[in-house]
Amino acid sequence: MLHYPYIPNSNEAVRKEMLDFIGAESVEEIYAFIPDEVRMKRPLDLPEPFTSEMDLKKHVDSILMKDSTCDENISFLGAGCYNHYVPAVCDEINGRSEFLTAYSGDTYADHGKLQTFFEFTSMMGELLNMDVVSFPTYDGGQAASTAVMMSHRINHRKKVLIPETMNPNLLSQLECYCEGMDLIKVRPLENGQIDLEDLKGKLSDDVSCVFIQNPSFLGFFEEQCKEIGCLAHEAGAQYIVYADPASLGIISAPADYGADIACGDIQPLGIHMSYGGGLGGYLATRQEEQYVMNYPHHLYSIFKNSKGEFGYARALPERTSYYVREKAVEYLGTCVGLWAVTAAVYLAVMGPEGMKEMGENILYKCNYAQKKLETVEGIRLPYKESRGFMEFVINVDGTGKTVAEINKELLKYRIFGGYDLSRQMPSMGQSMLVCVTEKTDFSDIDTLAEALKKILSKEE
Known about the structure:
Layout (H helix, E strand, L loop, with lengths): L11 H11 L4 H4 L22 H12 L9 E2 L12 H7 L2 H4 L10 H18 L3 E2 L6 H16 L3 E5 L4 H10 L4 E5 L9 H7 L4 E8 L10 H10 L3 E6 L17 E5 L15 E5 L3 H4 L6 E6 L5 E6 L5 H4 L12 H37 L17 E5 L7 H8 L4 E2 L2 E2 L10 E5 L6 H16 L3
Helix pairs in contact: 4-13, 6-13, 7-8, 13-15
């Protein structure tokens, strides 16, 4: 048996000491209860261990060097995770030990952290024009799923109307999380906007909620939000809007056009892109009992004691799985407390004017990019009649190349091309979702256009 210095208790002598202590002859005896048909019959194929920390670091660094990031490449990838600018103060604050090593609050009577969580919910409430905002969920997908289940617990209905152009990854989470709910797609018009006639035809007294993304997954603003909300309410359904917080400095908040529940991802608020982490979701409603008592997550409140001193605490904890376990409305976790801290710092630094300037910056660059790329022969913008924000679709059927082929060629120019929609939305043909953020320079867009012209002008 090899000794792996970074695997606890892998030393044979230590292993024997542990077995002797519990009175077992071998490790096999401990695992004997596992059914034979599900057990692996061979040793794990592990490489030889690194006995030197220096050698281990060299090995890991050699693997990491194969990676290619958005720091040394121009990126036009989005589709749910975005290359926004992260102010240095966000990393400075969330890296402090009092936040980084104790990401949750209340359990430790940590009033500084509780205040930070309260400030996060307060600033999000201002941005969303909602009364109540919960502690973050694991990501936007869980926030969306919880919003749907909240609607079900309120009206006990099981049908959910969603846009046909919904983010496929978000849809996958809804299908998994919202067990027992019937997800029904509403078709779009040619310009991508939701077909109100199709929506009317699918609304009935057994529809729990109408769910939209604004901006849509394909990048444009849904321009019939108020009408959609009115139709949902006429049918007695809840109206849920999944909104990108980066857009809320320049457009109306979901509450202003009738949303009962707002949800989304907080990754745009000072959180770096990362592979499988660094995400958190928000959930917001009016302060009404039917909503408040259906939040599975922590709610933070402020109070004043008899001495006139302010304090912060969790409100109505009896709703949560921390207090009543399996009797709670849903499962609750605390792993995203650090991102609540980060988003609070970001919102405090940006302020209303900063959020407005960022939104305008993105909008201008998105419009410029659409006009620039439309000049490239063979490229078509199928939804140019709708107003794009940060992302937009280009179709390359007319070029004779696939999106995968084009993106592979773009790598030679140190460009990450747009998200390949043909994999999950084949009905759109060879289309990609192009993303520009406030970090994208106008010169980056010009570089993309020139690279595409060169790639598409090559003879087969």
